[in-house]
Amino acid sequence: MRHTSEKGRVILVTGAAAGIGAAIAELAIARGHRVMLTDVDEEAALARARALGQRAAGHALDIRSPADWSKAFDAAEARFGAVDVLINNAGITHTGHARALRPEQHRDIVEINLLGTVTGVCAALERMTAQGHGHIINVCSMTSFLPLPGYATYCGTKHALRAFHHSVAIEERDGPLDFTIVHPPSTRTGMLAQEMADPSCAISFAEKSYAPEQIAEAVVDAVVTKPVEVVFPPFAGRLQRIAGVFPGLMRRVLPVAEARGRRQRDRLLSAQGFPASGN
Ligand SMILES: NC(=O)c1ccc[n+]([C@@H]2O[C@H](COP(=O)([O-])OP(=O)(O)OC[C@H]3O[C@@H](n4cnc5c(N)ncnc54)[C@H](O)[C@@H]3O)[C@@H](O)[C@H]2O)c1
């Protein structure tokens, strides 16, 4: 196994019951690490952990709750020893244009994607600094570079998370911790299925989507290689970063991409036997 470290790390993964988090946990175990799978859906996290064997364990963790963070870190430590790596992966979206979302849906996205992740980073900073080492990996999104229609608040949280991440990494530059941020593009998980059901998210289908296992590979590689930032796809992802800097250009290009996404989405829906949307 190419990336197996001599001594497997102890890794705590959030949102590990499904999608990208579940793929990360599975690959990390296959590479010799020990993984505490956490999720707001405790039963699903425990079931995933049971299926992964002795080097996996499961625990409830709603990332919004400081008390849950404390208990999850304690549980990981009791089972495997000090947590070497935190993979902050949990996140949600509510689909729809900003004007269509209820105030509590906007709040929900901010409380989970931004404040929940911030709470986890702060919990990890304290514990990992005390133990003298640690690596914080935040799973963010390519939408942290490019504002997208259908994702206003979601993009807002991911822009903010990227800024938070790098600010903290700079603040902690003389300390013992490492920081990595990974930005998945459209990935075929429950989240993308939710987006497929809503034509306002058509832009997500403008480019090819990735399998969760491909994102997991980059994240689990990062446990060993510790890159500062990972974008997808490696080259086109860099172009998106540049486009995001020029709002005039963005406003002209994104409607074209959205129209392309609408056509691709309709093709995917017809291939699956669903009627194409008229929107
Ligand atoms: N799927 C994509 O297209 C895509 C693209 C870019 C970025 N991302 C990001 O990747 C991460 C994982 O997304 P995914 O596609 O695997 O999503 P998913 O919906 O498939 O899985 C998310 C998991 O997080 C859990 N979760 C939700 N709220 C939680 C909370 N408050 N506390 C703890 N766990 C919670 C869910 O129970 C679920 O198991 C998210 O941060 C998402 O924003 C996803």
Tell me about this structure.
With 279 residues, the chain is an alpha/beta fold. The protein has a single domain, classed as Rossmann fold, CATH 3.40.50.720. Helices cover 51% and strands 13% of the residues. Strands 3-2-1-4-5-6-7 form a seven-stranded parallel β-sheet, sandwiched between helices. Helix 2 (42-52) links the parallel strand 2 and strand 3 (56-60). Helix 1 (19-30) packs across helix 7 (212-225) and helix 4 packs parallel to helix 5 (152-171). It is globular. The N and C termini lie far apart (48 Å). The protein binds nicotinamide-adenine-dinucleotide.
Q: Which cofactor or ligand species appear?
A: nicotinamide-adenine-dinucleotide
Mean pLDDT score, rounded?
94
CATH class: Alpha Beta
CATH-level-2 architecture: 3-Layer(aba) Sandwich
What portion of residues belong to β-strands? 5-15%
- How would you describe the shape? globular
Amino- and carboxy-terminal Cα gap:
48 Å
With strands numbered from the N-terminus, the spatial order across the biggest sheet is: 3-2-1-4-5-6-7
Sheet with most strands: 7 strands, parallel
Query: What class do helices, strands and sheet pairing give?
Result: alpha/beta
Number of domains: 1
Helix content: 40-55%
